[in-house]
Design goal:
N-terminal domain of MutM-like DNA repair proteins; 15 strands; alpha/beta; five-stranded parallel sheet; 15 helices; 456 residues; 3 domains; binds zinc ion; Helicase, Ruva Protein, domain 3; Rossmann fold
């Protein structure tokens, strides 16, 4: 989605050829983006000459003769293209202005979320949508931002996306500003201090200006113009760098979702004060998870072990009675249960649906009781569980099957039944979602040397 720097770049490109063009006719291919009846819009623009371009937040403003403007928002994927009258329309074209000199300007929008609003020039800033746009960072004072944050109970990440509060930050530059100011994106907005507001305004100003100079970021499908690419993408430090080493401290950056938006931060540089640093260690059975989580224990982390929590839950007769009934067991035993769930995927799912919510609740309780500590969660089924998003780092530990077999046998357990339970363990997804991946097939010394590289 284009943000302020990208819209500014589009504005600059349009400025090179739009002013001075007189509208001879228009072609409307999809009327849904035009916030007026098509007939009304046609007679509004035909015969007028574009005079200049301006921008407010992420809105483009096309100024025309006779006190008229067309306010345009590109939303997700809106693009403008210049062309000539004989061009064949693209299937995603929304509208085309045909100028008296035979050239054209097409608005193309794959997602059709963009808008075009005809308005009177002299009042356009005092009515919606422009009246709802807040100040841009270079006009906003830290005091105004601080005041605006006081009634926000959302995270700071979400608050800075509110264009009424501060105009121009979208998902990309929001992450960049929070990284630069060392503010954790999960912080509640009204806990941000006045000093931090000074930093947010200063860094928003600096980063957006830097992005404008570099022509914005070309991310995924967004292109300001065919053949023109933004250079800012190569300068982004946080956005798009989840699971990579932090450029400041080297610790793995973490990507989580806040309000549905992908968010990247460094758990070490952007400390969430009052909240524990949480490292999740996961891996299939006998992969060596506990070697890694025990290492972190020695580094001062409090270990919360899913297997121990499950053992305790199996001592609770409220839970075991439900399981006994569900699987028609005469007596409850974990060995008997293992035999039942290794028989079928369906049985395993049923058991998980009984046990997992109780495990999750217990994890949250223990984390809440230990907020002053660093915490390591040792959880075989971390990936895809609700615990995943509360981790500041996920470490996946894997081992060759031969090593797994050896270790399971050493524990005196049924090797095939244990491995059957782990058949569906999501190796590929886990590796992708992890900041660090370790194998425990080599020597312990080598593993510890790898772990020693990080400031725990
Ligand atoms: Zn860092």
């Amino acid at each position: 989605m284009p943000e302020l720097p990208e819209v500014e770049t589009v504005k600059s490109i349009l400025e090179t050829f739009v002013p001075g063009k007189r509208v001879k006719s228009i072609d409307v291919y999809y009327s849904g983006c035009i916030k007026a009846p098509v007939e009304e819009f046609s007679s509004f623009v035909i015969g007028e000459t574009f005079t200049r371009m301006s921008r407010r937040g992420k809105f483009l403003i096309f100024h025309m003769t006779n006190n008229k403007v067309v306010v345009s928002h590109l939303r997700m994927e809106g693009k403008y293209f210049e062309g000539v009258e004989t061009d064949v329309p693209d299937k995603h074209d929304i509208i085309r202005y045909v100028f008296t000199d035979g050239t054209t300007l097409r608005y193309n929008d794959v997602r059709k979320f963009g808008i075009l609003v005809p308005q009177k020039e002299d009042i356009c800033h005092s009515i919606a949508p422009l009246s709802e746009v807040g100040k841009e960072p270079w006009d906003l004072t830290p005091e105004e931002l601080y005041k605006g944050l006081q009634n926000k109970k959302s995270t700071i990440k979400e608050a800075l996306l509110d264009q009424g509060l501060i105009a121009g930050l979208g998902n990309i530059y929001d992450d960049e500003v929070l990284f630069a100011t060392r503010i954790n994106p999960k912080r509640i907005a009204n806990t941000i201090t006045k000093e931090e507001c000074v930093a947010i305004v200063r860094e928003s100003d600096r980063i957006l200006k830097e992005a404008i100079v570099n022509g914005g970021s070309t991310i995924k499908s967004y292109h300001p113009k065919e053949g023109v690419s933004g250079l800012m993408q190569t300068r982004l430090l946080a956005y798009g760098h989840g699971n990579e080493a932090c450029p400041t401290c080297g610790f793995p950056m973490r990507k989580i979702f806040i309000g549905g938006r992908g968010t990247v931060y460094c758990p070490k540089c952007q400390v969430n004060f009052g909240e524990p640093l949480i490292v999740g260690v996961t891996g299939p059975i006998a992969s060596g998870k506990s070697t890694v989580s025990s290492y972190l224990e020695k580094k001062g982390y409090l270990k919360i072990d899913a297997d121990l929590i499950v053992s305790e839950i199996y001592k609770n007769t409220d839970v075991t009675n439900v399981i006994k009934e569900r699987f028609s067991m005469a007596e409850f035993s974990r060995e008997g249960l293992l035999a039942i769930v290794s028989q079928s995927e369906e049985n395993r799912k049923v058991l998980n649906s009984i046990v997992h919510p109780a495990v999750y609740k217990e994890f949250l309780k223990r984390i809440d009781e230990n907020k002053d500590k660093k915490i390591v969660l040792d959880v075989p089924l971390l990936i895809g569980s609700p615990l995943e998003d509360i981790c500041d780092l996920i470490i996946t530990v894997i081992a060759d099957e031969s090593n797994q077999r050896k270790r399971i046998a050493e524990r005196g357990k049924d090797v095939d039944a244990s491995l059957a339970l782990n058949k569906k363990w999501p190796r590929g997804i886990a590796k992708r979602k992890s900041g660090l991946v370790f194998t425990t097939d080599g020597s312990l010394d080598k593993l510890y040397k790898n772990l020693d590289k990080y400031d725990w």
